[in-house]
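hey
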């Protein structure tokens, strides 16, 4: 992907075309189409529910900090207009639902009352519904790969180069999260078919109606892509964020296989070689 991005940065594209091309690259990336997501969705583990619990117990360390990432990006934006529009995303992350968002939620069968809570609370509700003890999770040290991912993403969102944070949070995250969460929702439906919409709504919300957040960040990205330095920052932020997520997924896939009684453990250099989706 890095070669393609280098060509894009120098290509004679409009700012709009450039951002759309970056989004297309992100959607096709290994992180978004990772073998781990396919393995979870296709129930390749002998105990799919336990594999998902292990995965989500680590993913939570990234997810519950999301408002911090968003605040960091907002603080680095130089334009008051950009800060103002992204503050709307922050309001929704903390549980605010405006009339337009209410209509979108009802359009996909989600009662707005289910999501009038900060999104970390929605995630905690899900973890508790599948039998995980959140205070216990938070008392444990996360996996080293989880820490590496969280710290890399935090650094990107706090970057003095504002376009890197927008590339990481917007193009590499908000613009593609619905694709990844579609796989996770499939896995959740298989593992816990009795789980109510209320308990899993964190994922339905992000898979179905998160395009508004992506659109706000896309508009900011188009504005920043007017300059060569802005284009470089967007591409660098996107690439680093996707690579960090893919690295976390690589380690989690190996971890889950090691814990799975039906699959042989493999080293990181052999990820996927013994499985059909590697």
């Amino acid at each position: 992907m890095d070669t393609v991005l280098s060509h894009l940065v120098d290509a004679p594209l409009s700012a709009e075309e450039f951002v759309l091309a970056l989004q297309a690259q992100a959607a096709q990336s290994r992180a978004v189409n990772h073998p781990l997501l396919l393995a979870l969705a296709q129930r390749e583990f002998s105990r799919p529910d336990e594999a998902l619990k292990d995965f989500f117990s680590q993913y939570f360390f990234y997810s519950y900090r999301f408002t911090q990432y968003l605040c960091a990006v907002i603080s680095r934006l130089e334009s008051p207009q950009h800060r103002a529009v992204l503050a709307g995303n922050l309001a929704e992350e903390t549980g605010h639902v405006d009339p337009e968002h209410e209509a979108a939620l009802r359009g996909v069968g989600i009662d707005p009352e289910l999501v009038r809570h900060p999104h970390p609370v929605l995630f905690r509700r899900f973890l508790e519904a599948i039998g995980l003890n959140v205070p216990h999770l938070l008392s444990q040290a996360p996996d080293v790969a989880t820490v590496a991912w969280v710290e890399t993403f935090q650094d990107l969102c706090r970057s003095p180069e504002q376009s890197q944070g927008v590339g990481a949070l917007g193009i590499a995250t908000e613009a593609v999260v619905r694709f990844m969460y579609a796989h996770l929702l499939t896995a959740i439906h298989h593992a816990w078919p009795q789980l109510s919409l209320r308990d899993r709504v964190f994922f339905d919300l992000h898979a179905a109606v998160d395009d508004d957040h992506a659109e706000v960040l896309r508009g900011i990205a188009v504005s920043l892509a007017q300059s060569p330095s802005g284009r470089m920052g967007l591409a660098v932020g996107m690439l680093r964020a996707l690579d960090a997520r893919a690295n976390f997924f690589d380690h989690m896939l190996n971890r889950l296989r090691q814990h799975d009684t039906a699959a042989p453990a493999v080293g990181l250099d052999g990820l996927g070689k013994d499985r059909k989706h590697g």
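The radius of gyration is 19 Å. The chain has 15 helices and no strands.
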